[in-house]
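Blinded run. Sample ID left blank on purpose so nobody reads anything into the name before looking at the predicted structure. Input follows.
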Amino acid sequence: MFDIFATYLRKNALLTDDEIEQFRASAVVRRLRKKQYLLQEGDICHYNTFVAKGILRLYRVGDNGVEHILKFAAENWWIGDYESYNSGNPGKGNIDALEDSEVVMIRKSELDELVRAIPKFQVFKERLDTRSFDASQNRILSNISDTAEKRYENFITAYPDIANRVPLHMIASFLGLTRETLSRVRARH
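Blinded prediction complete.
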């Protein structure tokens, strides 16, 4: 499982074998069963998590008990409750596995040290953070300005692999739609 992460680091961050060994020394490898929690609301998110296999979701539960999916993370994506991760405060989100999954977790203090010690990884992480921020901004704009049809089309285009792996009610939650509205949109699509 760590080998998948090592390949990712070699390809995307251009890290050497010695630099990858520094990650191996800090990494916690974990398998999750479908529906198993990685993090629950109220826990502090101490780890940034790389998905080597499977798919996870980050969601919050509203006061009315409705789940609101904030993010999906499939292979080669990172996930965490970053509000908790960055502040050290108890998290408001839940992260669970939608499939049997394998993840590589790195504690915040150790990842911060790796960023300081490996300049190439710092540049790579800054690119990741920028892309993540841009995607969040685009999603917010889409949710407040696009039609349901356009949101669904954008989702299918951006995440074709995820669209075929998660239940429709979860896609509806991610898009801010009811399941019924998403069913109507899909029937016309």
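Unblinding after everyone has recorded impressions. The chain is about 50% helix and 20% strand.
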